[in-house]
Amino acid sequence: MRPIPRISTRGYYDLSNGNPLKTNSYYLYPKKDFKKLVNSKDLTIMIHGLRNDGAGAVAKVLLAKNRLRKLGYTNPVIGFSYDSNTTGAHLIKHAKHALAVGQTIAKKNGRNLGLFIQDFKQSSPNTKIRLMGHSLGSQVILSTLEYLSKKKQNIGLIEGVYFFGASITEDVPSKKYGKILQSIVNKKIVNYYAPSDKVLGWADNEKYVKGPLGLNGASGKPISKYHQKLVKPKNHRFASYAVVLNSFP
């Protein structure tokens, strides 16, 4: 099987505290495949959630790619792989710390992914870029948009954003980041939310994430480019959200 093209920052951050270990921006694998992406009409980048190692990241891209193909999207789907398999994430007693470290690493990766997008758009200015994020991947996307918003020439740089089981807070599309989302995203932000998602419900109850966007949708008055869809996935896993996705882009 041919390798899945991915932008990676694996090994760039300490899995026990989130501190940076390397100063590189990102690396591409396999590098030659990225040359083939130049001048694509459209490109989707899939960003996984917490507790994914390198193999888990690849699996999420395959899930996204196969689902989007079924929905008639034939453009390239690639992955962004980052250090989300934080120390102790699978143990309840370490869950809060592991999530906090994961959130720190996800936020820092906004710069890494933002730099890739800027570099890629320089070599392929007409490619429309879409970002899909599951769970903690929503934080990577948010921080990427925040990083891109620092430069005026990045207005409308991202074509569309798609959140699944998002762990960012419900006020993101209205208050704090509304302006950034409205200016950097060209067409639309779609949030697939599920009040039945037990993992987000637990994170909300435990106050690990106060009011996750993926649980009950947005609060306040969201920006005009924001849309949300109520879905009923079997559980919090991306595989379950992929199944209930019925149109793209």
From TrEMBL:
| Any GO CC annotation of this UniProt entry | membrane
Membrane association type: Multi-pass membrane protein
Q: Where in the cell is it found?
A: Membrane
Ordered alphabetically, the record's keywords are: Membrane, Transmembrane, Transmembrane helix
**Which Gene3D superfamilies does the annotation name?**
alpha/beta hydrolase
> In its keyword annotation, does this UniProt entry include Transmembrane?
yes
The family database entries (Pfam families) matched by this protein are listed as:
DUF726 (PF05277)
The answer to whether keyword Phosphoprotein applies is: no
Q: Which domain of life is it from?
A: Archaea
- PANTHER family named among the record's database cross-references: TRANSMEMBRANE AND COILED-COIL DOMAIN-CONTAINING PROTEIN 4 (PTHR17920:SF3), TRANSMEMBRANE AND COILED-COIL DOMAIN-CONTAINING PROTEIN 4 TMCO4 (PTHR17920)
Per its record, how is this protein called by name? DUF726 domain-containing protein
Q: Which organism is it from?
A: Nitrosopumilus ureiphilus
